[in-house]
C-alpha cells in the first residue's frame, strides 16, 4: 500500500523511516575519510558541503522527526536543498555581506538557511527561539538583517511585530505554513516558494551557484553569534569560516570522532555549542544530525536514535537524574535496594578508575552483575546506551551527578569553551578524568593565567571581533590573546579549573574571599534547587536567594501528602524551608573544609516567590544570572536578608509567554542558618 503524508504544506521527501533502526559501521580509523581534506584551513562551509555530497553520496546527513516519522536527507539532498534556497535568495536580491536572521527550533530547513546564506557570501545570525520582542528587535536591528528565516507562525508573528522597528529587514521566509493561510504580506514567503524561485533562477543562471561559492574565502565571516548579555546588551561575535572549521577539525582529531556518529540537535541554534556540534563538526566529519520532533520529546526521540555523540549542559544532566530519582522513589522496595546497592558499587569502581587505583576483585564481579541488572537497562531506558562521547559545559556540574553517569558507563566529560573561541578551548581526555576540572587544551589552543588570576587563551578559533563594537573588542582581544573574564588556575596535571567570573570574585566585609558562582553551583548540585543567587560583596556574611525545582520538590511534597496550589504556595511551606535548610547545611559543610572559603558559609536564605525568568530579564537565555539586574530588582529582599526581620513582603510583575504581564504578591520567609 502506498501512503503519502502531507507535512508543512508539502509532500514528504522520498526518504522516510518509520520504526527507526540505525546500524553503525565500525571503524578503527576515525579520520579515514577526513584525511581526504588536505588543507582544512582553506575551506569554507559551502565548499565542505559540495565535498560531502561527493565523498558521502547517499549517506544520511540529517534527519527530522515529524508526525512520529523520521525523515532522512542525504548529503546530496542537503546540497540540493541549500542550492535551491540560495538561488531563491539570489532571485530576491541577496547580496554578499547581507545578514540572515534565523529563528526557530532545530529544523533541517533552518540549518539549510545558515549554509545557503554562506553560499552567497552572506552572514547568518541565529536567534534564540524563546526570545521576546525586545530582545529580537535589538539583535535584528543591530545586525541590520535584510532577510529572516523562521520556523513557524509563532516566530513569524514576533518578526512581524518588530519589522517596522528594523528598517533593514525586507523579507521573512517561513517553513511551516500551518496557521498562516491568511497572511498576505508581499514580503512574506514560504520556504518552498523561495526554492521554486531558486530553481527558476538556476535555469537562467546555470553557473551562478558555483561562481558564488568560488568567491568565498576562509577569512570571510561565516556567522555572527550574539552573546547572552549577562552584563549588558548582547554583543555580536564575528567568526570566520576558518575559525569555526579549524576548531571543529581540531576537536574531531582530539576526540577521535567518526563519520558514523549520530548526534541530537536540540539546543538553541543561537548558542555556539549547537553550531559547532550540529553543523560545523557534522560538516567536517560527515556524521548525522538528528532533529527531534519538539523540545518536549527530546528524551523519547533519543531512545529511538541512540546517539553516539551527545552534549548537554549540567541542568539537562541534573534533570535526567532527578527524573530517575523520582521514578525510583515510587518503585518497589526491592528495586530501590538493588538500585542503591549496585549504584554504590559503580561509584566505588569509578573512583578507583579516576584515581588510577586497582579495582578490588569483589567490586569487579559485582560491577559486571550490576551492568546486566541495572546499568545497561537504565542507560537503554534513557537513550544513552550507544554513547561513545558525552560532554557537559556552561556551568560546573555536581560531582555526584558527574560520577553517577560515569558510574553507569557513560563516557561523560567536561569541556570549557566560549563563543569568542568558536566554542572549544579545553576538553577532558579519555583516561584522564576529574570531576572538578575542565580538562586540557585541545590541539591549537594555548592558555595562560594572568597575574590577576584571569584565564587568557589563544587559538585558531579566536573571533574576528564584536560586530560594530571595536571598543569592546579592544577590551577583550589583545595581540591574539582573549581575556576570558573567568578566574581559574591550571593544576599539577595540566587541567584547567574555573573558579568564577573574575569580575564577580570579591570579598566580604571581613576580607574573606567571596566567589558567588562557586557557592551557587554547590547549591544547584541539589535536585531540589533549580537556581540560586548568592550575595555578600562588602557585607558581613553570605546570604542566598533560592529557586526550588518545582518538579522535584512537588514530587517530594506529594509523597508526604503536602498539598499546595502554586509555585509560590509550595515555596513558602515551612516543610520546604526545612528541606532547603538541609541542602544549605551540606554546602556549608563543604565550604568549611576549605581554609580560604570557610568564612563564606551561608548565614541566611529565602526562597523566591517565582522562578527566575529570561522574559523578566533576571537570567539570560543560557540561564546565566544577571547580577546587576537582580541586585536592583530585589534590593528590598537583599536588604531584608541583612536586617533583623524574619519575613519580607513582595509584589512583583511577571511576564507571560504571550507578552502579557501579571502581579504576584507574597510574604517571603527569611531563615537564619545555625553554625
Describe the fold and architecture:
38% of the residues lie in helices and 22% in strands. It has 675 residues and is an alpha/beta fold. It has three domains: 6-308, Rossmann fold (3-Layer(aba) Sandwich), CATH 3.40.50; 314-501, Rossmann fold; 505-672, ANL, C-terminal domain (GMP Synthetase, Chain A, domain 3). β4 (60-66) and β5 form a beta hairpin. α12 crosses α14. The model is unreliable at 1-16 and 18-34 (pLDDT under 50).
Main CATH class of the largest domain: Alpha Beta
Q: How is the quaternary structure best described?
A: single chain
First-last Cα distance = 73 Å
* Number of individual domains: 3
The largest pleated sheet is described as: 5 strands, mixed
- The CATH superfamily of the largest domain appears as ANL, N-terminal domain
| Count, helices | 21
User: Shape from CA axes?
Assistant: globular
- On the 0 to 100 scale, the average pLDDT is 89
> Poorly predicted ranges (pLDDT <50, ≥5 residues)?
1-16, 18-34
Count of beta strands:
33
Biggest sheet, spatial arrangement of strands: 3-5-4-14-13
- Structural class of the helix and strand makeup? alpha/beta
CATH architecture of the largest domain: 3-Layer(aba) Sandwich
Work out the strand percent: 15-25%
Helix amount, in percent?
25-40%
